Amino acid sequence: MVTTSATPLLPGDPYQADCPTRRILDRIGDRWTVLVIGVLDHGDARFSELRRRIAGVSQKMLTQTLRGLERDGLVRRTVYPEVPVRVVYGLTEAGRTLQEPLRALQQWSIEHLGDVSASQQAYDLRD
């Protein structure tokens, strides 16, 4: 089905290209989002701590991820007027509601790592 501007969108239909829920799924399905939420699951953290705990994330990607999460209302950014200025990131109430499903995904990936790795190796060996 093609959606046109005349076709009304059903609320919460991520299978429609222009549905806002698709953007939310894109955000929470992003690997950096999953890892940031995972770190903040343990408490508030400064940018440098997040970067240190999330191996492989660039400063640019972490900044973009945090800004997106803040914009979406999942992370709060608190600036303390100290010298030097201290900025701390933490989960909002909405962000905390993501902890359980993301923990479940993390646990699933740990439990199925061997099966997935074996499948990948078998696939890669096919002609």
Structure write-up:
Strands 1-3-2 form a three-stranded antiparallel beta sheet. The chain has helices spanning 20-29, 31-40, 47-53, 59-71, 93-97, 99-111, 113-125; strands at 45-46, 75-80, 86-91. The two termini are 37 Å apart. The radius of gyration is 18 Å and the shape is globular. A hairpin with a 5-residue loop joins strand 2 (75-80) and strand 3 (86-91). It has one domain: Orthogonal Bundle (Arc Repressor Mutant, subunit A). The protein has seven helices and three strands, in the order ααβααββααα. This is DNA-binding HxlR family transcriptional regulator. GO terms for molecular function: DNA binding.
Structural class: mainly alpha
Low-confidence stretches: none
| Number of strand segments | 3
Could you tell me how far the N terminus lies from the C terminus, measured between alpha carbons in angstroms?
37 Å
Primary descriptors:
single chain; 127 residues; mainly alpha; Arc Repressor Mutant, subunit A; three-stranded antiparallel β-sheet
Outline of the structure:
With 127 residues, the protein is mainly α. It has seven helices and three strands.
Write the topology of this structure.
Elements: H1 20-29, H2 31-40, E1 45-46, H3 47-53, H4 59-71, E2 75-80, E3 86-91, H5 93-97, H6 99-111, H7 113-125
Antiparallel strand pairs: 1-3, 2-3
Domain HTH hxlR-type: 19-117
InterPro entries: HTH_HxlR, WH-like_DNA-bd_sf, WH_DNA-bd_sf
Keywords: DNA-binding, Transcription, Transcription regulation
